[in-house]
Amino acid sequence: MGIRFSVLASGSTGNAMVVATAENKVLIDAGLSAKKVDQLLKEKDMSASELDAILVTHEHADHIKGLGAMARKYDLPVYANEKTWAALDKQIGEIAEDKRCVMDTGDFRNFGELRVESYGISHDAAEPVGYCFYEGDQKLSLATDLGYMSSKVKEQIRDSDVLVLESNHDIEMLRMGKYPWNIKRRILSDLGHLSNEAAGIGLCDVMTSKTKRVYLAHLSRDHNIMDLARLTVNNMVEDRLSADDHRAKLMDTYYDRATEWDQLDEE
After folding, report:
1. pLDDT tens-digit map of 108-156
2. How far apart are CA 207 and CA 12, in angstroms?
């Protein structure tokens, strides 16, 4: 079957994604209530009891809101690096010692045929990471909560079959928005979030002929619109690539519902 996945929710109100192979399933982040994550998994014809593990990107509330409850209810192993664990301990309650799994940044873990690699990103958290998922020659990459797309991040996610990429805000909408300036400055900084423009520019460096689809993710509900994100990213790509260069299909994500299952080997 290869790899398939669904972005269960994406945005400032909560983030979660499920990645599955024929035999194994992992949840990345649980940034909604455990009840809501359960509901979204059921909509994908899955139960949380089928999960092999929960992988954590970082400790911000929109990524770990339901983490503790999910881990305890279903007796699930939780994987995070040491610094993230130290930050999580204050927020998620008691986790059984044998379920507290340390996965250092840059490490691999195998869940059956599914191979998972973490990599460091730039964000204002203890030690935030993204993840790449492999089975055979298939590659799925998750890259959100990026202050900027460094050369190391580009190298890590390049040549993915499918990429889930942050396209958080429109710069002018953010500048004109209601947030206080210190919050705007944080979002625009190298430890903040990737703009539509930055997502489009970075995409040109990581998209190859192998890349089929790119999901635009973690959109701000106050400072972005999916149609605008898609248009801006597409314009950045069109401006920088030649007519003969490959272009991946841009896909939507949602804060309030899951995406359809995406099978990586499908065109």
Report:
1. 999 999 999 999 999 999 999 999 999 999 999 999 999 999 999 999 9
2. 26
- Tens of pLDDT, residues 207-239: 999 999 999 999 999 999 999 999 999 999 998
Residue tagged 């959109």 (tokens): 219
The order of strands in the sheet holding 4-9 is 100-102, 78-80, 53-55, 25-28, 16-20, 4-9, 262-263
Tokens 């010692």 belong to which residue? 97
pTM: predicted TM-score of the whole model, two decimal places: 0.96
Given a contact cutoff of 8 angstroms between Cβ atoms, the answer to whether 153 and 146 are in contact is yes
The amino acid occupying position 91 is: Q
- Report the candidate in 57, 213, 49, 185 with the shortest Cα–Cα distance to residue 120: 57
Q: In the numeric block, which tokens belong to residue 99?
A: 């379920």
Query: What span, in angstroms and rounded, lies between the C-alpha atoms of 125 and 248?
Result: 31
The pairing of strands 78-80 and 100-102 is parallel
